[in-house]
């Protein structure tokens, strides 16, 4: 089941540089693990911003919550979610 | 070059049913032609709405405008566009 | 899988009274059928408005779209959807 | 009398971890006590967020204020309230 | 139990003058009846607008819905509702 | 002359508890003094929030500014003001 | 007593040209009469729009409502009002 | 050339009192100097707020920027600007 | 003197095709005349929309109003204006 | 390929003056280098603000992201991006 997830990162300006670096390193590793597992199907940067557009492929709403709330950057992001499903005009087999 | 495009359809309630049916048929044919050409890379329905989330793959901004403004439903949609690019944490080769 | 769905009804003021009455009658029958099936788990009126707050219980996003887009009032409503899941502090067994 | 209450948690990033842990523990205990009393009828997590959708069952507006303003997380939440009542199409006896 | 209700009137510009006049006359009669009954405790015009600020005194949410949805202008108004209760600093006995 | 005033309190989370307590005590004393003088005609809590809805009765705009800007919580509140006047359908003698 | 009033004109596109012309002629005459009386102290066009910024000088809120609601274009304008008073740094004697 | 300028002051709550006092004193002196020069034509307080509505009279956009960006409170204000010009219905000679 | 002007076109769906064609033809001729005169310095389409971003070069606010309000599409556009001036970091001689 | 980019600067009020001065100096040098290269085609100040309107000329979305995310002020700005293309009514050869 697919969800569009948009994440906008807002790191507090007074957070120490090494703390930020650690969070970002863990975020990257975690994001790549979820991509490897097929849970994080697409991940794009929005040009001109510190934000991304993502497509998640999860079993249900609960798994979506588990994956997103475990993001190391979760406390520092504005996140919006839209449930997706197959469009009657789509010809792409995997646009479910 | 990829763009996220979101389209929300607002058909005037007093438009004749056959006119609507004709526009929708042409919209579907056109959407499927663009998908076949690889220009309209993904097309999802947003669950619970008359709206879609799409990923377009175009040569440049001008082609994006040409493709979108030719949509039969173009005059009846609220459309928002976000330019995408590769995310440094993506491992998907084609998330460009 | 649960979703909160909020619907605000906006019937065009120049729609004939009998057309409105027919749509409302079909809406009510359909809403009650979905409730009987257990798909539409809760349905409340928001006091002071022509709007409702609902909880849907569906198999997946696709079923949510099928059920909502088939509402007779669908073309005349502003609808917003939020995916729900179990809250770690809930003690209600069925707040999934 | 039922109210839909939505709560979005915004914990200041510079609050000490033990203070946060204490507040959260008290919040959970309080939330479960209100659920046991039947005052907090439903409590769902909104998937992909640090937010909940709740249904409160209270005697009147004053009790709603008493219960919500006593939440340990009250100073750190954006809260919105909508008064609910029976929907004429509901068939659920307790959707009052 | 008190509620603040704000109503903004938007009469369609193509509605016949006699229909408008009839609706307004019935609205006025109904508003005055509710005031006489003590249900509509205050009714003020917002200066420079076709809008009002009102205080309703009702038994519960359901009665609020019954009274407001029966307003002859109900289909032509944007309405917002806020539940009120006693403020700990109020000295007015009837600011409940 | 009446004004509806809405105040939403946002106390900075890092303000010392004794400073907050002092401000709140002065706010309460001042609010009660203005009520005693008849300047602050109504004061209600909005249920489920740290906010109030108030009706002020002042000689003119300048007095409204003097009274509100002297509130001890003034620097920590979002405040909105709407000028009121008699509604042609009001039957309450003092809804001026 | 001064108020800033902003008016944005939205004339329905299907209103007959002679009806519009008549409304505009009456609007202009009325606006000039109020200016002559000193009630409408300033009237500026906002460059690039069909909107104005105005300063009204009235006895009280009720007079503001009387003057504005009598504007021939009143049903076709979005209007916002802000009560003004003397600024402690003003040196202009009549900026009351 | 006239501009409407609206300024809303947001002084950080943790700024030392003497720093604030100094900024405000310089702001007042500067505002009065610009008024004496005829550049700051009107300055009103918005009743119930820490905000003002102003009319500037400048040679061009560049001068507007020079004057506003030199305000001692400039870093602590939300500022909005609207270019003004003569309204065809104005009878005030200096409403240019 | 430069202004950024953004225009979003909203043509009513029930306007006859020949009326629209006539308005658009006159709009194009007028836009090109203003460009030839150097008043309309830049005109770009926003990709994926029926909207433009423009730079106007005018003597003052009044000329901006004259030029924009004479656009044949003026009654059917949402228009926003921002006054521009030289940026201290610009090296382009004509970015005034 | 052209993009309109709008940047609004929000420097935290508690950042040391020398840190700010250093960031601004690097920002200016970088902005001028990109202008020299022809990547930053136009740069205007929005009068009355600490904001700019810019036109970027880049190879693709990825280059836009590279250039903008490298701005020394990037963490302290609200940035919005709109993809541009040739307008059918433009007569300026380089309004691509």
UniProtKB/TrEMBL annotation, chains A, B, C, D, E, F, G, H, I, J:
It catalyses: (S)-muconolactone = (4,5-dihydro-5-oxofuran-2-yl)-acetate. Its EC number is 5.3.3.4. InterPro entries: Dimeric_a/b-barrel, MLI_dom, Muconolactone_d_Isoase. Pathway: Aromatic compound metabolism; beta-ketoadipate pathway; 5-oxo-4,5-dihydro-2-furylacetate from catechol: step 3/3. SUPFAM superfamilies: Dimeric alpha+beta barrel (SSF54909). Keywords: Aromatic hydrocarbons catabolism, Isomerase. It comes from the Bacteria. This is Muconolactone Delta-isomerase. It comes from Oceanisphaera sediminis. The gene is catC_2.
